[in-house]
Amino acid sequence: xxxxxxxxxxxxxxxxxxxxxxxxxxxxxxxxxxxxxxxxxxxxxxxxxxxxxxxxxxxxxxxxxxxxxxxxxxxxxxxxxxxxxxxxxxxxxxxxxxxxxxxxxxxxxxxxxxxxxxxxxxxxxxxxxxxxxxxxxxxxxxxxxxxxxxxxxxxxxxxxxxxxxxxxxxx
Length: 171
Known about the structure:
Shape: globular
Number of strands: 7
Strand order of the largest sheet: 4-3-5-6-7
CATH architecture: Alpha-Beta Complex
Helix content: 40-55%
Mean pLDDT: 92
Number of helices: 6
Strand content: 15-25%
Low-confidence stretches: 1-8
Order of helices and strands: EEHEHHEHHEEEH
CATH superfamily: CinA-like
């Protein structure tokens, strides 16, 4: 039986995040790219996976967990308004990339539940990848309990970061 660590998902999900982080490490080192992360609802799950990956000190610049709206607005320059939005995710990615002097940044914000946030139902998540010249944002619509939504959001965020790295300078 697979156990569940409260707020972190199943061991299978943790293993998937670890595998993705290892792939991100290889891609970042191969391309000589530094990476930064801004997280909200995932509360550091993405950064934890990246920090544990091989040679993280060579490519992982760090992370900012901006759980409160005020931190998003004051530190990451998220514009006034809802923080569960594509605009907020985009601003978070650009802000952390700038603050931590990274080549590539990823950010995740969303409504984990159990209640709606900023008019967005639980499971509504926005992930942005910013490389300094362009930003892409993806909306996720996830189902489950808050811990499940957070764990799945972290995995999707790592997948999008890997895709951003694979697209770096034409792959």
